[in-house]
Amino acid sequence: MVTMMPFLNPNGAIALAKDRLGGLLLIACCLFAFLWATFHPSSYSAFKHYPLAEGISWQLFVNDLLMVLFFFMVGLELSNETKHGVFRTKRAIVLPLLSACAGFICPAIIYLFLIGGFASPLSSGWAIVTATDIALALGLLSLCSRAPVSLKMFLLAVAIFDDLLAIITIALFYTTSFEVLYLCLSVGITVLMFWLTRWQTKRLSPYLALGAILWFVLLKAGIHPVLAGVVIGFAVSQSGCAFSRRNESVLQWTVTLLVLPLFALSNAGVSLAGIFSLESVIDPIAAYIAIAMLIGKPLGVFGSVWLGVRLKIFELPEATNLRMLFALSIFCSIGLTLSLFIGELSGLANDHYKLGIVVAALVASILGLICMHFATRHGADVLQVGGDQ
């Protein structure tokens, strides 16, 4: 079935090229930010905090405004999948939903265990380890030419649910205080937007205008304003308004090749200069982050699939085997974009956590590609559960 989804659209060759280019560009920007912050930290700091207007730095512009486009795309994904894609039936939803939930919970538990629980001053960073980067994970999976389409669709479904959990987490746990009046206004605007969808208002302008107001109201309410993008995207898709395939494709290219790389460049920089200092040894946050992501994500995602299949509750996606699903679960350890985003909201005392995110992403990328190569080297020869796996 053809799905109108980012990274997996009908123009197969173009979509594949975009996946690969986007993933490689994201990694390149992270590494460049890493090296920039290490060898010239003062200029990197000046870049991040460059004032575009009074009270608005470059980093704030990227994180609070440009990232709305990313969350808008997530909203479109969620809506499109409920209508045409992998979420169109309840049975199709259950396995990726459980995998995403287990992949969310396991790394958080491991991280909290490593730091000593919620009493630790590092506890505010627990959600950093729970995210999966859709763009990078799918981009790397697209490098595996023998991986079946059903495997990519399963990864997409898990990553979308993962994003939804991250959105809920940001709204509930990283909002310091609520302004009741603005909170009520935001609820009212959201209801109005979905009332417009019910009446099939097909002009795009009312949704964009209400979305801009919602962004401002959420900001005033104390909730991160980028969440307005999810509401706008979902409402636009549900309304059936004239948001054409071409517009959606332009949005995908813009987010993949511009917004996410700029976000990585503006947020991934952490200096390696003091990595072996006494301070770094005393505060091993990077190791905690990397361990929780690299162990917790595969444990949750693959563990839930393995258990469900063993108990004959679920069936594997078509043309896949458990080795492929294990390799895929390693890709889920890549949480670059949203992990960095949540890290900025967490209020941790230093940037050492960014090192853990980048290390986890690099290790998961290399290890996932190696495991997927061996898992798919027999092509369509699918291993059965209970056999040699």
UniProtKB/TrEMBL annotation:
Protein name: Na(+)/H(+) antiporter NhaA
UniProt similarity note: Belongs to the NhaA Na(+)/H(+) (TC 2.A.33) antiporter family.
Record's catalysed reaction(s): Na(+)(in) + 2 H(+)(out) = Na(+)(out) + 2 H(+)(in)
Gene3D superfamilies assigned to the protein according to its UniProt record, in alphabetical order: Na+/H+ antiporter like domain (1.20.1530.10)
Coiled coil: none
Annotated localization: Cell inner membrane; Cell membrane
Entry function: Na(+)/H(+) antiporter that extrudes sodium in exchange for external protons.
Gene Ontology cellular-component annotations: plasma membrane
Chief location bin: membrane
UniProt keyword list: Antiport, Cell membrane, Ion transport, Membrane, Sodium, Sodium transport, Transmembrane, Transmembrane helix, Transport
Species whose genome carries this gene: Photobacterium lutimaris
UniProt xrefs under InterPro entries: Na/H_antiporter_dom_sf, NhaA
One GO process term, biological-process aspect: regulation of pH
Membrane topology recorded in Swiss-Prot or TrEMBL: Multi-pass membrane protein
Transmembrane residue ranges: 21-40, 60-80, 92-119, 153-174, 180-196, 208-235, 255-278, 285-309, 321-343, 355-375
GO MF terms held by the record: sodium:proton antiporter activity
Top-level taxon: Bacteria
Pfam hit, one: Na_H_antiport_1
